What we know:
Blueprint: H1 3-11, H2 14-23, E1 27-28, H3 30-40, H4 45-48, H5 58-72, E2 76-77, E3 84-86, H6 88-92, H7 97-110, H8 116-119, E4 136-139, H9 148-154, E5 156-159, H10 173-183, H11 192-204, E6 210-215, E7 219-226, E8 231-232, E9 241-254, E10 265-267, H12 272-283, E11 296-301, E12 316-320, H13 332-337, E13 343-348, E14 354-367, E15 374-389, H14 390-394, H15 403-406, E16 412-415, H16 417-424, E17 435-436, H17 439-445, H18 450-463, E18 465-470, H19 476-488, E19 490-491, E20 496-500, H20 507-510, E21 512-516, E22 522-526, H21 528-537, E23 544-549, H22 556-560, H23 563-566, E24 595-602, H24 613-616, E25 620-623, H25 630-638, H26 643-662, H27 686-705, H28 710-721
Amino acid sequence: MAKNEGKREFMMYMAPLLDSLRTLGGSAKPAEIISAIAKRNDLDESVTDAKYESGASKFEHQVRWARQYLFWDGYIDGSKRGVWALTDKGQKAIISEEDALQIYKNVSANYPYSDLALENQLAEDFDARTDDKPQYWIVAPGEGAKKWDEFRNGGLIGIGWDKLEDLNDYNSRDAIKKALLEQYPNGSKSRTHTSLALWDFAHKVHQGDILIAKKGTREYLGYGIVQSDYFFDDSRDEYKHLRKVVWKKTGSWAEDVAPIVTKTLTNISKYPTLLSRLQRLIGIEQEAVIPKDVNYWWLNANPKYWRIEDFEVGQEQFYTTHNEKGNKRNRFEYFQTVKPGDLVIGYASSPVKQVVAVFEISKAAYTDEDDGKEKIAFIIQKFLPTPVTWSSLEAIPALKECEVLKNNQGSLFKLSKAEFNAILSHDGSEDTQTNGYGREEALQELFMGDGELEKILSALAHKQNIILKGPPGTGKTFMARRLAYARMEEKDPSKIEMVQFHQSYSYEDFVQGYRPKEDASFRIENGVFYRFCKRAQADPDNDYFFIIDEINRGNLSKIFGELMLLIEKDKRGEDFAIHLTYSQAIEKFFIPKNVFLIGTMNTADRSLALLDYALRRRFAFISTSPIFDDKFGAELSKKDVGSEMIERIQRNLTELNKEIATDHNLGSGFEIGHSYFCNVDDDMDDEAWYRQIIEQEIGPMLEEYWFDNPEKAESAKRSLLN
């Protein structure tokens, strides 16, 4: 059957669905409605009992999609989960065949979820993929794999969050997120990963896809082939969201390269190197596995000649077995021993002195036909979000007898498996014990209400670029980090980079440019933002935040260059990769979708020009103001500042800010912020501490404000001190 005919098949149930709902009083559960349609229209068993190859009912599937389109076009109310109900429009509607076709056209033209991929699911050959390649997913069979035996023996895979009923009743991921917040109010406030897992499980996983079951972050349990559409089984006690799976191979395979992602469900199809390795490791679609005698190595990369972080995950690199003079490298026999599948610690030597990546040998020693040199080849498997320093390695007991720590002169060193794992165990990305950080924690640290915090986080999500602007001392830089933590839902500094712009800051510092070498020649060096984006590209499942302090102090058009285009939210990702000013002809650069920019801007700096309008429209601007309210007072009270001093600060600074705000030469952008008083010196009494701040910090600023009226500045200082 052609796809268009498949679509007409579900359209024929639109009118019967509305009629049956009216007969049932305007609302009913899906099973009741589906049964009523079959009885009302006297459908033959050949229709109601027909099934896809997966075993799912074709009739029920078509009715559900008829309901979905009627919901999208306003005939059915979707506000109550597990119940289909008529809207006023649906109560009155009498739908003809032409009307059903028009509903289909309306939704196809206007509704963002009715794209081609979704429409193809409506055809009779629903269980076949629209492309030839299955998608590969890593899935957790319950927390700690507690449901693995049940799922493996029962030919199933399930996902939790059972307070949400049939996921087909949710028309978008946002609807699922909203329901999660309603049904599980005590958990995370963003539900980013959970809503994505539920949406993907119901709508993105297809029959024929490959599921790889995992346990924790270091063990794979097997793989299977998806055999059914998503279905909801309310008769189960837990894990009611299900699909049928034929588990082809089960067992235990250790993950030695990098920790397995912690999310419940992750599509790994876009990571060909990882996918290829897992196919070999587990024996997916083949019986070959990685040899048991995998060797482990350490490879030194001298930053003077090449920098590991300049390359990308999955990119193949080469290392010659002879040095520049043609002599064999130290431990030449090691270069002759490495073989495909061996794993390598990638170490950036002096002056960096950090383990930064994990490699996998892709080719044993061979002679390159282009230059005649003998080389080994390896693929970059993983960058460590938190590199491991040399000093950290020296403190690891398991490395006490490690060859490379005894004498680091050379290039390639042998490691034992225990030594390899000991090094990786110090990677900050492996089960990092970061502190959880949600909106409640942010509200405790920031002087703002829940509504204002929600507004700022929404702007950050919507635009991905925001600027915090306000007077000095309003805690803009402090706030920037807390916003990043709140968005991440954990306090993880490893995913945050911070720079401060100034008048001499350049494109070469920020993105890429030529830098001198010791031999007086020049080579291309990547800037801080380029390297940060490469880190984020290597870790697409987590958000990364680049904070630019004093963003308006730099020449922004000069610093950003062609990245003015790429920082727009809808220009993120590999599809928009471009050639950089200094890049090689074949090289392209893109800003990944998981990078967020947060800038801070001091509104009291008269020396600065307005932001470039082209850049301005790419950011959402958030105003910050001085806060001397009860929350500020309570914070000082926690730090043992006396109540009289707290009242004095609140009164004096509030009066001063009113005077500044009404001065036509200054205005509210020059007010004095609260953060001047947030660092309390325990070694000083209240009076001495307060006078020091006024005389050494705020007083000189007032002299700058009223440089043409020193009497006014002096009067303001006296008022603060009295």
